[in-house]
């Protein structure tokens, strides 16, 4: 399954992704971007957020191992 990947350790907390696409990104307790949803992966906001990241750390990964540790349901 395709998932969004953010290398949070390299995030500079600029807020671009969170501002452009709050459906998929939010700040964690350390003020770094984390992925909060893997729905609607073809959304325009998501593409814009990926392009807007100044350090280029947002990408997609294929998760073929059925790992779900990052999966969160939006309430
Ligand atoms: S756009 Fe990139 S650097 Fe800025 S908060 Fe999002 S992941 Fe971090």
Number of helical runs? 2
What is the total tally of β strands? Answer: 4
Write the CATH architecture name.
Answer: 2-Layer Sandwich
How many domains in all?
Answer: 1
- Mean of all residue-level pLDDT scores: 90
Overall shape: it is: globular
- Unreliable stretches (pLDDT < 50, length at least 5) are none
Strand proportion, as a percent range, falls in 15-25%
What ligand species are in this complex? Answer: iron/sulfur cluster
Describe this structure in words.
The longest helix is centred in the middle third of the chain and has 9 residues, at 44-52. 19% of the residues lie in helices and 21% in strands. It has 75 residues and is α+β, with helices and mostly antiparallel strands. The chain starts with a strand and ends in a 13-residue tail after the last strand. The protein has helices at 16-20, 44-52, and strands at residues 2-6, 25-27, 33-35, 58-62. It has a two-stranded antiparallel ribbon with strand order 1-4. Strands 2-3 form a two-stranded antiparallel sheet. Bound molecules: iron/sulfur cluster (SF4). Iron/sulfur cluster binds at residues 6, 11-18, 33, 52-55, 57-58. Iron/sulfur cluster is lined by residues 6, 11-18, 33, 52-55, 57-58.
């Amino acid at each position: 399954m395709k998932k969004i990947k953010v290398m949070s350790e390299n995030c500079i907390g600029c807020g671009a992704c969170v501002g452009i696409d709050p459906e998929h990104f939010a700040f964690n307790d350390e003020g770094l971007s984390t992925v909060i949803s893997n729905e609607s992966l073809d959304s325009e906001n998501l593409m814009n957020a990926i392009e807007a990241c100044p350090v280029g750390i947002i990408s997609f990964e294929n998760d073929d191992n059925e790992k779900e540790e990052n999966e969160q349901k939006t309430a």
